[in-house]
Design brief:
Elements: H1 2-25, H2 31-43, E1 51-57, H3 62-66, E2 68-70, E3 73-76, H4 79-89, E4 93-99, H5 102-114, E5 121-125, H6 128-134, H7 143-152, E6 160-161, E7 164-165, E8 168-173, E9 176-180, H8 181-186, H9 202-212, E10 214-215, E11 221-223, H10 233-246, H11 264-278, E12 298-301, H12 305-313, H13 316-320, E13 321-325, E14 334-343, H14 350-361, H15 372-381, H16 388-392, H17 405-410, E15 414-416, H18 423-438, H19 443-461
Parallel strand pairs: 1-4, 14-15
Antiparallel strand pairs: 2-3, 5-14, 6-7, 8-14, 9-12, 9-13, 10-11
Length: 462
């Protein structure tokens, strides 16, 4: 009896010990998980009480917003993933992405401002910012944002208007030559190793363009040696200005009070460009985007076009595309242009919007040493980010990328276009006169006529 009682006590003790041991070894939520759970409960905000930030972008391609997927797996984040990440950290915030096509963006933002229906965050081509500042449309950034821009960016020129910083630099752009290396090889334009030989000087380009162009039996061009794009200032005006600078010429005077592009250097450049039309290498119907379809051998493009060409060409992209610095007249040169982000002056959520932009554009990710916005630009949009660390720590997508390398190598020799009032109108005048020269108008007369109209505008800017 005593022995049985003793065994019963031992069994009860062992059972109790086992229960205690199981409870002790059972995985317990970490302190971080508990804090996170408590925080989520504490900060849970009803949908109708959340602060909605409206972010207006000009990105129209699906991958730019939704990210890049391969075989159904997300490879590079789009804008949406970054906004979702911020919302997870700030449950009281929600976002709306407003997409406005590039050609409509400048005027659409003005119209929205007029009717007090502005987005909270904008990202704009720098030249638009001058009139926005003039019309009191954009909020002057906080002091810490300005100090950050002063210290951490390759160029602050695009975000600087009348000596003051009005936003956060986004992408930085110059121009390079894109060419179809397969066409070059087929045409015998190769180096001693049989590889496609990119034109180094403008004269080299003129000879190559003529050789690469093809026509049908009726004399219509079926493959362009070189292409512009009618009606697109970046594909007409910017190539002219880049070549003008390479020929020792200037766009405007140092104080932006007088047009200088109609100098002998400018006339020489435009005459030479028009020579491409006269020798059958191109015509007024050429289009840069036809490069994807194998209908264009060469064009001047900006870095962001990589994503567009890559998506359109698929497997052909790596096999056919090559990029080189702009062929020059006297010295290598390129025009530079920029974009910048900021907050609208009529935004009802200025503080929340600037807080988000600090996180998005200045907060350094420990695992990558980059900002989230820099990664979005470099890895998804395929643009060149202006922030120094984003350039340095995205080398796998930038400096080690055959498409981007020429653009980056030219940044230090590129010239920012001036931020002046009525810049868009000025560029429209230049576009019209340059295209008139393409169609047969005397080059000197075209540039002189443009200069007269533009000088009248510059006088009004004083």
């Amino acid at each position: 009896m005593n022995k049985n009682f003793f065994l019963l006590i031992v069994i009860i003790f062992l059972a109790a010990f086992a229960v205690v041991l199981v409870l002790f070894l059972k995985p317990m939520p970490s302190a971080r998980e508990e804090i996170k759970k408590m925080a989520n409960v504490a900060t849970s905000t009803p949908e109708n009480q959340k602060t909605k930030i409206v972010y207006a972008v000009h990105w129209m391609d699906k991958f730019q917003i939704d990210g890049i997927y391969e075989n159904g797996i997300l490879k590079e984040k789009g804008l949406m993933q970054y906004l979702d990440e911020y919302v997870a950290l700030h449950p009281n915030i929600k976002f709306e992405i407003m997409t406005i096509p590039y050609l409509e963006y400048e005027n659409k933002l003005k119209l929205l401002d007029d009717v007090d229906a502005v987005p909270d965050i904008f990202q704009i081509y720098s030249l638009w910012g001058v009139s926005y500042v003039e019309d009191n449309m954009i909020d002057n950034p906080p002091k810490d944002i300005k100090l950050d821009v002063e210290k951490n960016y390759v160029s602050k020129a695009g975000a600087t208007i009348d000596g003051d910083i009005w936003g956060i630099p986004g992408e930085i752009n110059d121009y390079s030559l894109i060419y179809n290396k397969k066409m070059f090889k087929d045409a015998g334009i190769v180096d001693k190793n049989g590889e496609a030989l990119a034109p180094k000087t403008w004269n080299d380009l003129v000879m190559a363009a003529k050789k690469l162009a093809k026509k049908d039996d009726k004399g219509n061009i079926t493959r362009y040696g070189f292409a512009f794009t009618k009606g697109m200032d970046w594909a007409v005006v910017d190539p002219f200005l880049s070549l003008l600078m390479s020929n020792g010429g200037s766009y405007l005077s140092a104080d932006n009070s007088q047009a200088l592009f109609n100098s002998p250097a400018g006339v020489e450049v435009l005459n030479s460009i028009c020579g491409l039309f006269k020798n059958g290498a191109t015509d007024v119907n050429s289009n840069v985007w036809d490069f994807s379809d194998g209908k264009v051998a060469m064009a001047f493009v900006a870095p962001w076009t990589e994503g567009v060409f890559k998506e359109a060409m698929g497997d052909r992209f790596e096999k056919e595309v090559a990029v080189a610095p702009i062929p020059y007249f006297k010295n290598p040169a390129s025009l530079q242009y920029d974009w910048f982000l900021g907050v609208m002056n009529k935004s009802k959520n200025k503080q929340a919007s600037w807080d988000f932009l600090r996180w998005f554009t200045t907060d350094i990710q420990p695992d990558r040493g980059t900002t989230r916005y820099g990664d979005l630009l470099a890895r998804t949009i395929k643009a060149i980010p202006n922030r120094k660390v984003d350039l340095e720590n995205n080398k796998d997508m930038l400096e080690n990328n055959f498409f981007k390398t020429p653009f980056i190598s030219q940044l230090l020799i590129s010239t920012p276009q001036p931020n002046i009032l009525h810049a868009a109108e000025i560029r429209e005048i230049m576009l019209g006169e340059i295209e008139a020269a393409f169609a047969g108008k005397d080059a000197k007369r075209a540039l002189d006529d443009a200069a007269v109209k533009i000088n009248n505008i510059l006088k009004q800017n004083k």
